[in-house]
Amino acid sequence: MSKIQNLELLVVGGGPAGLSAALAAANYGIKVSLSEEREFLGGQLIKQTHRFFGSEKEYAGTRGIDILKKLIDEVNKNNNIEVLLSSRVLGIYEDNIVTILNDHKMKKYYPQSIIFATGASEKFLAFENNDLPGIFGAGAVQTLMNVYGVLPATNVLMIGSGNIGLIVSYQLLQAGVKVAAIVEAAPKIGGYSVHASKLRRLGVPILTSHTIKKAIGKEKVEGAVICELDSNWNEVKGTEQLIKCDAICLSVGLTPLVDLLKQRKVKTTYVSELGGYVPLRDENMETSIKNLFVAGDVSGIEEATAAMIEGQIAGLSVAKRIGKNSKDEIEERIEEAKNELELLRSGPVGKKIRKGLSKLGLNHGKNYNEKFSEEALDISHLMKTGVPSEENLKNKLPSEEKVFDKGPIAISECFQRFPCDPCVKSCLFNAISENANINNIPYVDFEKCTGCGICVSKCPGLAMFVIHKNFSETTSVVIMPYEFLPRPHKGEIVKVFDREGKYLCDGKVIRILDGKFQDKTAAVSIEIPKEYYLQARNFKVEEGNHG
Amino acid sequence: MRIQNHPILSFNRGNQIKFYYNGKELIGYEGETIAAALYANGVFKFSESKKLHRPRGIFCAIGHCSSCLMTVDGVPNVRTCITPLKDGMRIESENIGVEINE
Ligand code: SF4
Ligand code: SF4
Ligand code: FES
């Protein structure tokens, strides 16, 4: 065996947390080795084709795959980072010696500090026949489809309505795969409402209080039996129904991958809000063992944005400890990152995370202002169905009908308080406001709005529309976001649908904004009969119309 | 079943290469995994479980579940979902028709 190599910092895992950690430390002169088990960097980011939510600083509004390109670019340019690909960390011993397997060879390293950014693994679900080919984890579907361009099936039943389940369902539709339904055991949708609404508009049913009983098929999935659940999570007799599908995709949650940490006897504890066993750690991401840090999903399941900020905190903390200078500056940056993280988690959707963190004794030393978490709108119907209630809509529309007389105006169909603000940041006319908190609900100032349609392409939730009610005597125009193929032509007649994916009327395409700025989220103006201007929210292009 | 056109992504597939699945010649691309290449060729059953001979296919696609194990160039129990496909590779299903006596 080769001799032991000394390292300043070893980062284990090349996903969003690991990349951010490596960069944060390397930027302050720390020599970093970044080991990644696969032959490429990126972790789960490589499969994320959707725009990110969260704050602008952490690339909100940018697609996951493009964020990854930027991070990898920076890593490759940084002389302080050595990337070890196809390198699996096999063991870590009491003296912090780490063994890494690469190309059938074992190498030994002795790092001064380690950041574990090993991510998470998918949870499984028990039901009859759950081992049939055609039953996948959501990550597998994303890998096949978005990394290798291979279709997993033609008609998929999705189990689980968390953000991953909703996002993967949408990605399946984009790849041309049908989604039979989304089944959710809880009485409400787990992910962001804007993701759910997108799917409903496209005609995908979301069945809350439902579960899968068994998969049907001999050699491969041919269908599934689902049934309803009552408020005590018991099956309701006589509600079984057969759903035809050729694949079942499980997205029932993630659990932190803490195996390596356990090997090194880092203290862990079970926190259901964070996904399972998580390492005990302090605010600087340091575990119970000095100089051993964690970042990202391994420290508790959260969104990628949080993982990147945690990576920065861990990387900066290492730099502060073993670095030679700039300590004050580093300290300042750590504080900034902590504040950002706190803001991200401060709304109602961060409640679960906050509860989990408080079980670890972490609350950034402060109590969250619970005023932030109070729901401003009653969104129970929206969270059950994915479709906003009349009340919700009324709240976002101009209070007086005559406001529509001024010309085109933006309407934001975003009703949930969650950390997101590209709409606010993208409007050149400062017409959208969230009242200074990224978790607040955006409201459009109809006085200021010019109806330019920029926000339609920039909102990751596809929740911004522009309505020109009095386009002509008898017609209105709605500008809708569109991320599918085929693209429509100007003058083409398309089918127009409502928020539940029901056919409303035919519409005429009168303008398409689909350039570099829109970045594949086209803003398409559709002319429709005036009576439908408050309902028309989606359209489909018929394949046959395109030669 | 390969995606040809996608509204967001473009796939830069490597060179076409030949490989063998239970003796049958198939075409895949350099840079993809064995599992992806098999799936693209319509192969969803990779092996059978040892005792009950239940069909096995891809589940996690990231090397964590062992559902995709196959014999590759004579080496048994290779995780095909994270092993890159190579020109001329011979890939064999495991446990098909093999009875275990205990
Ligand atoms: S339509 Fe233009 S002016 Fe109006 S809110 Fe959107 S970006 Fe701002
Ligand atoms: S409307 Fe604004 S806050 Fe809501 S999803 Fe879109 S960008 Fe985010
Ligand atoms: S599919 Fe899970 S290890 Fe390959």
Report on this model:
The complex is a heterodimer of chains A (547) and B (102). With 547 residues, chain A is of the alpha/beta class. Helix content of chain A is 24%, strand content 26%. Chain A contains 13 helices and 28 strands. In chain A, the strands form seven sheets. In chain A, strands 1, 2, 3, 4, 5, 6 and 19 form a seven-stranded mixed sheet that branches. Chain A has a seven-stranded antiparallel sheet with strand order 20-23-24-27-26-25-28. In chain A, a hairpin with a 4-residue loop joins strand 17 and strand 18. Chain A is globular, with a radius of gyration of 24 Å. The relative contact order of chain A is 0.11. The model of chain A has no long low-confidence stretch (mean pLDDT 93). Chain B is mostly beta strands and 102 residues long. Chain B has one domain: Ubiquitin-like (UB roll). In chain B, the strands form two sheets. In chain B, strands 2-1-7-5-6 form a five-stranded mixed sheet, covered by helices on one side. A two-stranded antiparallel ribbon of chain B has the order 3-4. The longest helix of chain B is centred in the middle third of the chain and has 7 residues. Chain B is globular. The model of chain B has no long low-confidence stretch (mean pLDDT 92). The site of one iron/sulfur cluster has 14 residues of chain A, from helix 13. Chain B: It comes from Petrotoga mexicana DSM 14811. Chain B: Keywords: Oxidoreductase. Chain B: It holds the Pfam family Fer2_4.
